[in-house]
Amino acid sequence: MDQRFVFNQVADLYDRARAGYPEALFEDVMTAAALSPGDAMLEIGCGTGKATEDFARRGLDIVALEPGGEMIGLAQRRLAAFSNVRFLETTFEAWPVERGRFKLIAAAQSWHWVAPKMRFAKAFEALAPGGALAVFGSTQTDIPSPLREALERTYALHAPTVVGPPPEAGYLPSGPFAGSFEQSGLFGRVLHKGYIWSRRYSAQSYVEYLRSVSRYQMLEAARRETLLANVAAEIETHGGSFDLGYETHLYLASRKG
Question: What is the pLDDT at residue 3?
Answer without folding.
Answer: 53
